[in-house]
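A reminder from the course coordinator: this example appears on the midterm review sheet, so study it carefully.

Given structure:
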């Protein structure tokens, strides 16, 4: 009798196919299904030819070919499609069976699905998967959360196919209950948005401000790989800057400057606002993509304002090092803000997320993998109650050493007309976060003046609220005090 499958995968787009091949490479018997069943045959006769992968041609066929408890992984578009497949699966599943959503689902959907399926006896896992096409094939970062009863059954498969650190540690571990895994993946994508925009700002400063050639910039990014900036995104940027089009000119110059997005960066910003966490850099990176999409409007506005960018004077080597320092410091702020949001969600939902372990999940395999994620893991292992990553001695030292160059680059960019929303927002955040006193006292006075919203006093205990009749005409009644 033919051995039944260890896991079924629904969805044969690039990520689904590569994860299946990865599972097969690690000795797991996989059952593959796609709603358009012709794709099953194409896969089996193509890249899956000669493997032990089994094809399925209906949901019932898929389920019948799986060992119990059945494990079915969905690699389909987030949203309604996930719910449709869950509904299709339910009549064929039994109590204790497991559904894994490996797409970029919004975590409230995962919260809902975990609860609804638990009531039906089905264990649901929301697993964020990062690494793109290559990661899926050779080792992604995987961030599973949901019904913890399922972990013992899916752990051997997910950890086997995940990326590994230099020490052999899998970049996959249980994140937390409900939608914790998809929340962490969402923040990962938000940090990815920020990292990419920061690199683009450094690129524009060197290209338009310093007047460097693409060959020079490729060499600079290659050199930066040997520093604390070493990361996947720095690595691919060096490759991109060196890639020539058919006319032997840099291909990137022929790419239209309008950026797309699929929503996870936006979700990160929305959740930051909902939780009251100042995720300024990531939010600015989303807005930067929005501005880029206004290509026709930007063309007209550039003519209206006669926009030009002045060249930067001074020693280019010193400026290049200043840009590196500004990029490094801003990148640290991006991660710091991301972990502040993860902490707030974990405490709010009682997810009990391990922040050091989360950094390890991103150490290899994923898009934001970088050298200093090991230092982030160390920071949280040394102090699990660390609220702001910049307070850790290692990162505090980098931020302090970079500060002068960071200010220099941001100030020069504003002076000569280069937009630098993320580097500027990062240093502004640090200045605000490290200020013992901010001008919010005036803001509270304004709120009390026009809306009787009350204020606290520096000479009275916290929690006591006061209202002033500023004009003598407003009366003494105060509004109810609350924060959204």
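Designed residues:
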């Amino acid at each position: 009798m033919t051995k039944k499958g260890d896991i079924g995968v629904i969805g044969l787009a690039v990520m689904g196919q590569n994860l299946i091949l990865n599972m097969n490479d690690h000795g797991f018997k996989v059952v593959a299904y796609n709603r358009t069943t012709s794709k099953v045959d194409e896969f089996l006769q193509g890249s899956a030819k000669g493997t032990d992968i089994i094809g399925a041609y209906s949901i019932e066929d898929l389920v019948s070919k799986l060992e119990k408890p059945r494990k079915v992984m969905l690699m389909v578009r987030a949203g309604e499609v996930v719910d449709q497949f869950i509904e299709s699966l339910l009549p064929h599943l039994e109590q204790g069976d497991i559904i894994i959503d490996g797409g970029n689902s919004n975590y409230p959907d995962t919260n809902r699905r975990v609860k609804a399926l638990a009531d039906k006896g089905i264990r649901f896992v929301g697993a964020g998967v990062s690494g793109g096409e290559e990661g899926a094939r050779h080792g992604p970062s995987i961030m599973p959360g949901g019904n913890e009863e399922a972990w013992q059954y899916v752990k051997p498969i997910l950890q086997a196919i995940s990326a590994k650190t230099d020490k052999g540690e899998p970049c996959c571990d249980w994140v937390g209950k409900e939608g914790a895994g998809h929340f962490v993946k969402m923040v990962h994508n938000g940090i990815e948005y920020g990292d990419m925009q920061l690199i683009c700002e450094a690129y524009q400063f060197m290209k338009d401000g310093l007047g460097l050639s693409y060959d020079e910039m490729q060499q600079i990014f290659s050199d930066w790989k040997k520093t604390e900036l070493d990361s996947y995104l720095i690595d691919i940027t060096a490759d991109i800057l060196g890639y020539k089009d058919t006319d032997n000119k840099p291909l990137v110059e022929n790419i239209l400057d309008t950026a797309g997005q699929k929503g996870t960066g936006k979700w990160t910003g929305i959740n930051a606002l909902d939780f009251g966490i100042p995720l300024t850099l990531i939010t600015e990176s989303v807005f930067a993509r929005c501005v880029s999409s206004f290509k026709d409007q930007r063309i007209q506005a550039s003519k209206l304002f006669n926009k030009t960018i002045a060249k930067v004077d001074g020693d280019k080597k010193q400026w290049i090092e200043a840009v590196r320092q500004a990029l490094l410091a801003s990148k640290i702020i991006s991660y710091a803000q991301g972990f502040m949001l993860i902490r707030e969600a974990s405490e709010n939902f009682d997810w009990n997320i391990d922040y050091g372990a989360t950094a390890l999940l991103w150490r290899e395999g994923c898009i934001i993998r970088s050298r200093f994620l090991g230092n982030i893991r160390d920071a949280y292992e040394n102090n699990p109650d660390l609220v702001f990553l910049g307070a850790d001695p290692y990162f505090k030292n980098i931020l302090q050493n970079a500060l002068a160059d960071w200010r220099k680059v941001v100030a020069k960019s504003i002076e000569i007309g280069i937009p630098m929303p993320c580097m500027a927002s990062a240093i502004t955040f640090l200045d605000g976060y490290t200020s013992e006193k901010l001008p919010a006292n005036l803001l509270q006075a304004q709120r009390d003046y026009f809306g009787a919203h009350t204020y606290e006093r520096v000479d009275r205990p916290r929690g006591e609220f006061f209202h002033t009749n500023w004009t003598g005409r407003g009366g003494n009644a105060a509004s109810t005090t609350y924060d959204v």
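The CA atoms of residues 21 and 47 lie 8 Å apart. The chain is about 50% helix and 5% strand.
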